[in-house]
Amino acid sequence: MALPEGHPLADGRTASSPLVRAARGDRPETLPVWFMRQAGRSLPEYRASRAGVEMLDACLDPALAAEITLQPVRRHGVDAAVFFSDIVIPVLLAGVGVRIVPGRGPVLDEPVRTPADVMALRPIDPEALAPISEAVAIVARELGDKPVIGFGGAPYTLASYLVEGGPSKDQLRTRALMRTDPHTWSQLLNWCADVTGAFLQAQVRAGASVVQLFDSWAGSLSRDDYIRRVAPHSQRAFSWLRGLEVPRIHFGLGMGEMLDALPKIGADVIGIDWRLPLDEANRRLGGTMPLQGNIDAAFLTAPWPLVERHVRDVVERGSEAPAHIVNLGHGVPPETDPDVLSRIVDLVHDL
Ligand code: CP3
């Protein structure tokens, strides 16, 4: 499968954007910057758009999802839009009952824990992805030469929501399933890889020029378990993009001990959380990979001179890597003053 004709990366619109160039290992004149969770509660225009609309309903309304995706690009001048959706959307589209409970996160109607539960999971009907494709197409058209980033949840993070039935601190039930029933485990992770893979593929075909896989909970695993029991499934999720030559970012939290496993799953850029300085991450990766990150969100409420010093430090450490995409070390906290984000964008572009 190749990128469709008229795709913004195939027809050259986004190919020389700073984000795509950096993701391919180049050093463009301006450093690209975007923020995980840039579309969301920190923006008053987001809160207005979402008033009276459930989170997952908003994700499935193409005009609304496109509008919310574009809001932070208009406001902050970031180098990319990240598609407004959620990692559980493909789970929902595959027929599994899930809601997002405000202040908590995704909650399943029924957890998926037994071999029978896993056997009952069905693939996504490709037609169910139509609202996603439609929304991404609107955004790509509006943005012109600025890329849209598509994303999906990594199989382990998705599986943890399915098994736990909701957010959990330590993913204990999930890891217990991995230990006690390796066959059911690999079936469940394959299912998660395939729904996420189909979701990623739909976004890319509709016009996303870059993708990011989020493994928010992988840090709860040992290095060995990650490499043996999880990484092959993340690789399977990326394999849905075979032939679709868009750069792939992998972002996980707390993965400092297993960074070197990430290039092997097919990632082109490694997202680093706030725990590990970028120069050290680069050293652990042997100086071979473009990095993304890793402004500590804990600075966002500090007086500007402290923010500025920290951002300069991140950029300086990032300069040791072959290429750098500036981002936070995790998502924008809802209480962030959006003006601070706009100032960070201006600062990064001036550096
Ligand atoms: O701007 C963006 O980054 C794009 C959109 C995006 C959302 N969720 C929108 C969202 C992305 C990339 C995600 C990914 C996501 N969702 C992850 C992986 C990244 C991470 O943060 O680790 C995870 C674990 C989820 C699951 C999820 N969805 C959680 C934990 C929550 C927060 C619940 C809460 O109220 O605090 C959500 C809801 C969610 N997803 C919101 C947004 C903007 C908040 C919804 C609201 O406005 O109430």
Automatic annotation (TrEMBL):
Gene3D superfamilies: 3.20.20.210. One of its GO terms (molecular function) is uroporphyrinogen decarboxylase activity. It is an enzyme of class 4 (lyase). The keyword Lyase applies. Residues 32-41, 149-165 form the Uroporphyrinogen decarboxylase (URO-D) domain. InterPro entries: UROD/MetE-like_sf, Uroporphyrinogen_deCO2ase_HemE, Uroporphyrinogen_deCOase. Substrate binds at R37, Q38, A39, G40, R41, D86, Y161, S216, H330. Keywords: Cytoplasm, Decarboxylase, Lyase, Porphyrin biosynthesis. It is found in: Cytoplasm. Its EC number is 4.1.1.37. It holds the Pfam family URO-D. Residues 1-22 are annotated as: Disordered. This is Uroporphyrinogen decarboxylase. It comes from Microbacterium hominis.
